[in-house]
Each structure stands twice: as C-alpha cells, then as structure tokens.
Predict the structure.
Amino acid sequence: MFQGFPEIKEALMSNKMQAAFMVAPMAIALRAQGVPVKIVYLGHRYGSALVVQKDGPVHSVSDLRGRIIAIPSRFSDERLIVYRAFAANGMDAKKDARMVEMSPADVAGALAAKAIDAFSMGEPYPSQAEIVGFGRVLFHARQYWPDYISCVLVVRQDVIDRRPEAVQTLVDGIARSGLWLEEKDLARKHRLHAADFVGRFYYHQDPKMLRWALTNPIDRVKYEPLSPRRADFETIVNLMVATGVLDHSIPFEDFVDTRFAEGAHTMTAWKYEAGDDRAK
Amino acid sequence: MRKIILALGAWIVAITAAHSVLNVNWQVLMNDRLPEATRKLNVGYIPVT
C-alpha cells in the first residue's frame, strides 16, 4: 500500500511492483513518455467528488472562482473533472481555479484546517468529510462526466509478454469481485462486508467510512462495466492535451491492451458470503 | 561479567526474534526468491478509489 500516486509510479517503473492501480491520465502520460506499461482493466467507475467546506461560502461551481482546490496529481481525472465542471459553468479552470497537488490522505486535514477551499478526490475522502462533518459534496463526478473513470489497472509490458496467464488471473479476479459487489439484491450486503474487510485488512481505515462510500447511495462507486472502452479513453486523452499535461495525442492501442478484459467477459460473481472459508 | 554477557546475548536474541516476527514480511521475501513463473505479482495501490 502506498500513500500517493508518484510513489506507485516509481515502484512500477523499478519493478518493485509488477502491476498497480493508478489514475488513468498518469498511466497514459507514462506510456506517452515511452514507459513500457499498459492499462488492462479499470478499478471502478465514478467514486470521485468535489468537496467544499461545510459552512463555507462555496455553494455552486461558479463560487469556486479563484479558490484553492486540492487534487491528487496533475495527471489525474480529479483534475480533469474540475476542468469539465468549470467549462460547463462558463469558466476556464486554467484561469479561474488554483489547483494544488496533495496526497489524498492529507486533504481532509487541509480542508478542516481551511488551508484549502475544496478538494477533488476519490472515495473514501469525500465520505470522510461528510461523516466527520467538515465537508460537503458540491458535485459528484457523474454530474459532469457520464461513465467517469479514475483508477485503472496498469501492468508492466514485460509481465504481459512473459506471464499473460498471471495477468489474466488478476483481471478475472477483479472482474469477479466487481460482479460480486454489483450482484442483484445482494449488492448492499456484499458492499457492507467488503467495507469491513477492506477497511480492516487492506486500507487500514475505519470501515464506517467505506460503508458510507460504498452504499450512500449504492451507485456512488460502480464496479461494472470495467472493460476499458475506446471512447472513454479518447475523452481523457483529448482533455489531457487540451489542459496541457500531454503534448500530443496517442492512439488507444498504444496504452491499452484489451485482451485480458475480453478474456474476463465470461466471468461470474464470486460465490462468497460472510463466514465462508473461501471464495469460489 | 559472564552474567552480563549472557543477559546481553539473550536480549539480542529476543529483540531479533521479535523483529523478524513483527516487522519482516516473510511472504514477500520468499516470493521474490521464487522462479518467475510461480511468483505472485506485486500489485500496488493507494487507499482511495
């Protein structure tokens, strides 16, 4: 587990990690710089929000003009969503917003201390701000970006070439977990259970926060469909070029390998309920 | 003097054992030494969606 995307990027490039979840624009920028990695699957859809001080003066996107907004990275969808929201409200984020990069774990404290006016970040930080009571969601990513993507699964090219079966096993597992979290009539129950074990054993966060993020409402974060789609990524590349973090457009095939998503098409949800010995 | 050396030795052994149990991730260390074909992939993430 890491605390910021730049550290993940370094670990992936140095082969300490063979795969990693990172924000999509960072993966695209790495590939554009010639780093041999590929996006093979999505981590989720939606799950990012712009949060402002609960009792602060910001009540609409236009109130954000000139305010300090924290983002996880220049190469993040959380930055791009600010551009989209500003454009939809007749503003230009390049001129009208002051964006600062901040580790996701630090934004809650910064907003509570009023060091920033807002943050654009993935869950569970918007949930944390709402639960603790110092923040208010101004908008969720879905309001300005249908089928929004944030984290994607990136794998080193040498691993794809030498161990495709291991990559397929990883993607299949993510696909099955996503279907399990979206399972009809059981989605809420599964999400509550996931919040508990992920909070305790993986994220080391209060499960209450994750319960909120995964169920309030139930589609706050979506785990299906997770196949990388050309149109979604072309939108991201175009926005990256337009906002100056990518100096040239790159074709979808250069940074995405869809064969593992295609291989996972027939997957079904894990057969697993709380108390089972193992998932099948 | 002998007692001091024995106590010191026991202390070092105890601390080393505790360190190796509490702070060393043996699964990761052993995984790095397996042949590539059987090695588990290390997947990085941050605690955020």
About this structure: The CA atoms of residues 127 and 212 of chain A lie 6 Å apart. The mean pLDDT of chain A is 95.
